[in-house]
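> @MW can you paste both from yesterday?
MW: sure, first one:
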Amino acid sequence: MGEPIHIVDLRRFTSRQLEPLFAEEQRHWLDELHWDYRPSIQLITKFVDSRSLAGFAALVNGQAAGYGFYVLEESKGLIGGLYVTPRLGQPGTAERLLSQLLTALRSAHGLGRIEAQLMPFGAPLDRAFAAASFRLFTRQFMVLPLGEARTEPQPIGAGLRLEPWDDRQFEPCARLIREAYASHVDSDINDQYRTEAGAMRFLKNIIVLPGCGQFLPEASFVVRADDGPTGALVAVALTSRVSHGVGHTTQLCVAPQHHHRGLGMRLMAAAIQALRSARFHALSLTVTAANAPAVGLYERLGFRTVKSFSAAVWQE
């Protein structure tokens, strides 16, 4: 038998005690996904040391073997991270941590929904989520070496114009996201897409905060109706820098009435060209496997899936 696993409130720990876990987790993100996870770890460190991060750590033989944390957002809970080291080789650690996180979340007053999108670095959790009555949605992490990009020259189309992103487009973009994701599988995964207020929070997270790298306005574009300076926004592609020379498409969406006009390809081609001009060498993104048109577009561009993971959703 292995050493017993002890689950302890995360607020009893300092970031220094968790440093070996943070270092391992950063290496996984960089080696497997080409993503510099240090800004996220720095933010986690700040909240751990202020004793304000809700979650748990797992101890095996007195050593920190894993940690997980959650955030409460009105009537929704978000499992923001869960990592378990393979070094201690103790089976069941990730499941124990997840069980404790779910117990804490479900005891929160008025909570009716829980979302999680966790990268399974050696600790697959699909069976545990399914046993806890979560719906699972397969997601693909895809990478494109920019030197191999197969962009297809596309005219922007009559009555439309391609423009660079600027911050005046926050509100029109939030409206576009709500419209584009109505009745879409991704709005089942992330309920922020269902309302303009939620879409605005999503945009602030990927543009203002370090949740998805450093936003690159120079590689982010919109398509607008060509009927004056206030023409309606009909499509958008947003890009961030996630490590040296690596970009990440944080959002690509097209208004439903403008589907099948090649706007997704045109926007991705513009972002790829901007990244090449800035000497980037790769671009990554995530996509829901059930979204066949989007997966097909990315594969035509040359993206390849390097990791699959599950988005997990529980609804009361």
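MW: second:
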Amino acid sequence: MLSVNTNVGAMVALQYLNKTITDLQTTQSHINSGLKISSPKDNGAVYAIAQNMRGNVAGYAAVSDSLNRGSSTVDVAISAGQSISDLLNELKTKALAAADASLDTASRKAMNADFTALRDQITTIVQNASFNGVNLVDGTTANIQALASSDGTKKITVSGQTMKLSGTVVTLTSTGTISTTAKASTMIGTLNTSIQNVNAALAKLASGVKKFGIQSDFVTKLVDTLNAGIGNLVDADMAVESAKLQSLQVKQQLGVQALAIANASPSIVLSLFR
């Protein structure tokens, strides 16, 4: 039926053309953003999953920072412990030399002055072994905790190791000297105990920092896996989008031509009245 009031062919052609234009805009959006799902309108379920995974990635960024801070804090404590261990070995050497009864008074006095200077250096090291306001070797911090999960419920704990003078680890007192043969002889045993204790404390700190390192490596790999998963869900395949774009551009041109032909069909009615 030919009608000048209702052009069914033109309406159908326009519907197809509008659909093609909508698809073309969607494809162009995918190409511009690099995402096939950039909003809930594209696919609400997949978008929600991707957003949850992005939240986990953001959480693990905080976990990584926490682990790095914890690791640095323990590293400072280990450095302090190593320095204290070295000083104790030097002090032991001084004590062994001072235990020699044949040592003259002047030499003993000079040796004792060196001993007390090295002894006091331990206090200086302990007082300055802080990172981010946390000191694991002066007795002010019982332990340090770092985040281990993105929801904050899991944590890794490393205990502090007090290495100040007159403590349970360094049994050398702040007044200990080697001013006499007897004191020097007694000091040797004290220093042997302190050296063993410090080395044991260092082993505990090293075990703790290793836990931080293992978890940090795991978090890095986990974040990479999550990012890859997010990409699989929402990233656009540019090769596919490019082919689709060219196809839709051709369909758009054909649709415009089809609409033009359909719009011209009512003019045929004029020929019936000639």
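> thanks! DSSP finds six helices and four strands in the chain.
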